[in-house]
Every structure is written in C-alpha cells, then in structure tokens.
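The authors assume throughout that readers already know how a fold can be written as discrete tokens. A single example would do more here than another paragraph of explanation. An entry of this sort, consisting of the sequence and the corresponding backbone structure tokens, reads as follows:
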Amino acid sequence: MVESPPDHPLIACHDCDLVYQETALPPGGEARCTRCGALLYRDTPACVQHSLAYCSAALLVFLLVNTFPILELETQGIHRNATLFGTALTLYQENMAPVAALVALTTLLAPALELSILCYLLLLLNLKRRPPGFAELMRLLQLVRPWGMVEVFLIGVLVSLVKLAHMAHVLPGLGLWSFGALILLMAASAGAFEPHEIWRQYEQCPNR
C-alpha cells in the first residue's frame, strides 16, 4: 500500500479514476485530468463565503416562491391563483397522486433539502467550526441534487401560461418571478461550490 506524504495527498479523477498527487495551484488556477480532461480541483479559497451568500439568498427566494402565487387567472368573473404547494395538492385531489408526488419531490422537497444542507454546512464552516455529520450530509447532497428540477417545472409553467392565455386572462404572480431568481441563485451557488476546497476547510477546522 502506497501512502502519500502529508503535504501531498492523493486525489483520484472522478471520471476515469486516474490517481494524482495533489499540488498547490496558483490563485484562480485549476487542475484537470491529463487522461480525460475532467476538472480535479480549483483554487477557490473564498468558495465558502461566495456559496453561502448565494445559498442564503436562494433560501429566502425559495420562501417567496412557496408563499406567493405563481399564476393568477381570471375568467368569466372568477379569480383564481396557483401556488407551488397548491399545484401539487390539486394534482393529488384530481386522482393524480404519482404526478403530485413527483412535483412535490422535485420542486419542494429536493430544493428545500439541498438549500438547507448547504446553508448548514457553509455557515458552520464560515464560522470555523466542524459541522457534525459533515461527511454524511455531503453524500446526501450528491444524492439530492439530481432530483431538484425547478427549471424543468418553470418551463412547464411558461408553456401552460401561453396556452392558458387563449382561454383566460393570465397574470404572472410574484412566485413566478421568484422562481426565475431561484434558478439563477441556485446555479450561481452550484458554480461557486468547490467540494475539494470545502473538504480542505473542514479538515482545517479545529475539533470542538
């Protein structure tokens, strides 16, 4: 068994499993696999602060998405509005439980869990504290992320908005605009999130 020196740990490419000895990077630099070209790690010392800022803003916007209507419809004097939770509930009441569960999972539960985990981990790391259950939550985060499909739901809402416009007077609600902002903030948070740097800062935190 070959052991890496303490100051040069080993790192494996997540795409092709080729093993490298980790080396220091220049500011803003990145290391890529010489075999497949996959990104190994980047020099992003401020990734915790940047990701926390985007994630905190996304969590606040997520609350707006679930508080205000996505669409407001008016037809024949009848005024209705649709919220995200109300959409899933209506689908369930219309005997479409599998679809309702899928909508709730991909637009409510998965994003809420992802943002909660991120804010918890990043906040404690920013305070120079080791988050309890760090490794388990990082693995759970990787499992949850593919299930968050708010952008797919937004596309579906926009298609419905065009079709409903021929049958009723439709107004986009604050929830719809918040949905767009949520997608941008979650994308920015994912772009700023660097797992390699997150693990490094976790290992540097004192045990307490």
Remarks:
- The chain has a mean pLDDT of 82.
